[in-house]
Design brief:
Helix 1 runs parallel beside helix 2 and helix 7 (about 270-280) runs parallel beside helix 8 (about 300-315). It contains nine helices and 18 strands. The longest helix is centred in the N-terminal third of the chain and has 20 residues, at about 60-80. It has helices spanning about 60-80, 120-135, 150-155, 195-205, 220-225, 240-250, 270-280, 300-315, 335-350, and strands spanning about 5-10, 25-30, 35-40, 45-50, 85-90, 100-105, 110-115, 140-145, 160-165, 170-175, 180-185, 210-215, 230-235, 260-265, 280-285, 315-325, 350-360, 375-384. The strands form four sheets. It has a seven-stranded mixed β-sheet, with helices on both faces. The N and C termini lie far apart (about 45 Å). The chain has three domains: about 5-50, no CATH class; about 60-175, RNA methyltransferase domain (HRMD) like (Transcription Regulator spoIIAA, 2-Layer Sandwich); about 195-384, Vaccinia Virus protein VP39 (Rossmann fold, 3-Layer(aba) Sandwich), CATH 3.40.50.150. By secondary structure, it is α/β, with parallel strands linked by helices. Bound molecules: S-adenosyl-L-homocysteine (SAH). S-adenosyl-L-homocysteine binds near residues 215, 217 and 290. S-adenosyl-L-homocysteine binds near residues 193 and 216.
């Protein structure tokens, strides 16, 4: 266990220890000294996740009160640091000392994900649900999103996504003055990419002219571009995502300087290849692909993918253009990502100056001692 880092791998446990699923246990060092209290998993490679440096016993309502305190502290942190939105991540797992628990807020609809045996304990979950009601009032709804793959990994019984409290599963929400629609029960499992909220605003400061948002999803970047650019195109391979994006655009039409946004259903690799060979030109291009590297082993392949789309985008940008390029793969380091961009710039024979080096918004906190909490890289570049 590294100092301040909250994980103990199964291979680091002394001997063959049986862990009670989801229990609150003490971590004792080889010298017999108490190190921390942790939540145990009987199946995960991460056997123990530290939850406190104090010795806590697994009795009475100890875990419940800890969860309730931590959810309140997380809500308080957002009240201090999050502005211009009623949608944000309220609890971000280890970054809020609640390993395995994620809670997102979309106006009055809260989405809870319990990703470990411990966060699936009834006392822990009930405490989180009650704390949300105390923090945000009794009129909220809380919907649990279940990931069947994670439940299998944690050896938890199968379950369906379900309402834990209240009655709403869909709502409009506001972000930076734009209205978006959220529906927890719609086909796509993900909500909005709340981690890009601050990058949308930063992007709009430099965006201009003819703009393209590649990997647009529900149009997060596209709509922000639409307020400042003459012409905006959003590209995504998913028709359902683009239909949702169009709905979002219609809800904000009065604010869109570009008028209608053009949505293109296409594979981004194909489209960028076609458009760059046709000599299409843009003033602003956003690249925000899904995580190309889900594991360490796939980093090289991911970098090849990133380079291909960045190279094509650079070729398509007019002189004085803006490139906003993103990677949400934790395994691709900031250094690797910047080196990839440098290599694409050299190949395209374009001079790229980095205006802003950015990351995920503050409701997805980065903890100094837990490098895994930092994952998003967003570079805003001036392209000569
Ligand atoms: N920029 C978005 C988030 C993008 S998430 C926002 O700010 O909200 C990644 C998106 O890429 C998803 O919508 C997914 O459908 C899309 N996608 C994945 N592979 C793709 C491909 N090969 N071509 C185009 N879109 C793709």
């Amino acid at each position: 266990m590294r100092i301040g880092h909250p994980w103990v791998y199964r291979s680091d446990l002394a001997g063959k220890q049986e862990l009670t699923p989801g229990s609150l246990v003490h971590i004792i060092g080889e010298d017999g000294r108490f190190l921390a209290s942790a939540l145990a998993s009987s199946t995960s490679q991460i056997a123990l996740r530290v939850i406190s440096t104090k010795p806590l016993s697994d009795s009475g309502n100890v875990l419940a009160s800890l969860f309730s305190e931590r959810v309140s502290a997380a809500a308080e942190y957002r009240r201090e640091l999050v502005a211009d939105t009623d949608a944000y991540r309220v609890v971000f797992s280890e970054a809020d000392q609640l390993p395995g628990l994620i809670i997102d807020r979309y106006a009055d609809v809260f989405i809870l994900q319990a990703l470990t045996q411990a966060t699936n304990r009834e006392d822990a979950r009930d405490a989180a649900v009650s704390a949300l009601q105390i923090e945000y009032g009794p009129a909220i709804s809380i919907f649990e999103r279940v990931d069947p793959r994670i439940r299998r990994l944690e050896a938890l019984p199968e379950a369906e996504s379900n309402l834990l409290y209240g009655s709403e599963t869909a709502t409009p929400f506001l972000m930076n003055g734009l209205t978006f629609h959220f529906d927890a029960t719609a086909g796509q499992k993900t909500g909005a990419f709340l981690d890009q909220r601050e990058n949308y605003v930063a992007t709009a400061q430099y965006a201009h002219g003819r703009a393209m948002d590649v990997f647009s999803y529900h149009g997060g970047f596209a709509l922000h571009l639409g307020r400042v650019c003459e012409q905006v195109t959003g590209v995504d391979v998913s028709r359902a995502a683009l239909e949702h994006a169009e709905k979002n655009a219609l809800a904000n039409s009065a604010q869109l300087k570009c008028g209608e946004i053009e949505w293109i259903e296409a594979d981004a690799f194909e489209l960028l290849k076609d458009y760059s060979s046709q000599g299409q030109q843009y003033d602003t291009i956003v690249l925000d692909p899904p995580a190309f590297a889900k594991t360490k082993r796939t980093v090289d392949k991911a970098l090849t993918g990133y380079k291909e789309i960045n190279l094509r985008a650079l070729k398509m940008l007019r002189s004085g253009g803006t490139l906003i390029t993103n990677s949400c793969s934790h395994h691709v380091s900031r250094e690797d990502f910047t080196a990839m961009l440098a290599s694409a710039a050299a190949n395209a024979d374009r001079r790229v100056r980095i205006l802003e080096t950015r990351t995920q918004s503050k409701d997805h906190p980065i903890v100094a001692t837990i490098p895994e909490t930092e994952y998003l890289k967003c570079l805003i570049c001036f392209v000569d």
